[in-house]
Structure formats: C-alpha cells, structure tokens
Amino acid sequence: MNTKARAVSPGLLFWSKVIADAQTLKFYAETAPAYAQHGSDEPDQNLRDFIVALPTGAKVLELGTGGGRDAAFMLGQGIAIDATDGSPELAAEAERRIGQPVSIMRFDQLAATACYDGVWANACLLHAPADELTEDLTRIHRALKPGGLFVSSFKAGTGEGRDKFGRYYNYPDQATLESHFQAAANWQSLSISARPGSGYDKLPTSWLWVSARA
Question: Residues in domain Methyltransferase (predicted)?
C-alpha cells in the first residue's frame, strides 16, 4: 500500500510509507459498504478451482477478505477460514456477512508457521509495497503447510502507480512477479497466467493469477 522510496533518509522513508498507506486505507474506509457489495455473488472459477484442489477438512488463510464474499462461499463448502483484512471498515463488513471475527492484519504482520492448507489472496497483495512483496511472499510460504496451495491475483502493469481513486498498486508484469516468487521461497510448483477482467473501477484490466505450492 505504499509508494517505493528512492534515496531518502530513514525518517522520510517511514513517513512517506505511512502517508501512502493512509491514502489507500482512506479509500476503503470511505467506501466500505459500497465496496463490500460490488461484484457478482457468483463465485469466480479461480475460487472454485482453489477449493477443489484443497484436502478434505482444509484450513485456509484469506488475505484481503474485503466484504467477505469469497470467505462466505468457502465457509459454505465446509472450509475453515481465518479471514483477515488491513481495513477495519472492510473487516467489519465481512464480519456481518460471514458471522465470525475477521482479523485486522497487514501482510507484514503475518507470523504463522505451517498452519494452513491454503492461502487465498484475491486482489489484495496488489496493494503490497513493491519493495516489500518478496518478504510478504516469504511469510505466506512459511504460513503454509508443506504442499499447501497459495493462489493470488495482481493487476498487471509496468511498475508502481495509483488508480483514479488514489489507491497504490505494485502493478507488476509477469516476469517481475515471477522473480518476486522465486526470490521469496523454494516453491514446489509455480504458474502465472494472464486473464482479462475488471474491478471496482470498471475499467478493462489484465489480471495475473498465480498458483503456487509450498
């Protein structure tokens, strides 16, 4: 959620990250009810494929649960969910939908080790600071059980930027994203595919979907 600092003092770096993070969080704080309702209630095929690939009785960590739509579907399929979001306002919306607590957690606060059969991160790690993404992926790999499945999605681009709402995005291309994953951990398998779609801004978007096994 932060802009990438370039050749600044540690103090300025800290404050630039706080300000940038606040700008993205401000958007979600102000739009939480509407954002939680946008999109289709029909589960995405990527989510269906993720669920099918999980073992019976799976426990899943969801990063960036948003309004809780994906979490609600997974719970309905008998999957145990630890839902999290960096926005307190969105976490509250998700709690109302799924009827269980949603933890308020930044990506860099993930400290679990070998706890999860799967990690679902739909359209959330795209807000991770570009210079933090490799470390975040390392944390996710550590949180997975051996052989655990990680699925995530990113808006493709050519480097960091903001959308028309002021939200920060890391906007990686496929090669850059692959390099982050390879630097983060030794994955058993890793695949990245580009698929057309859109988002809250209703603009045509090239999405990079990643599937990786710990």
Answer: 60-148
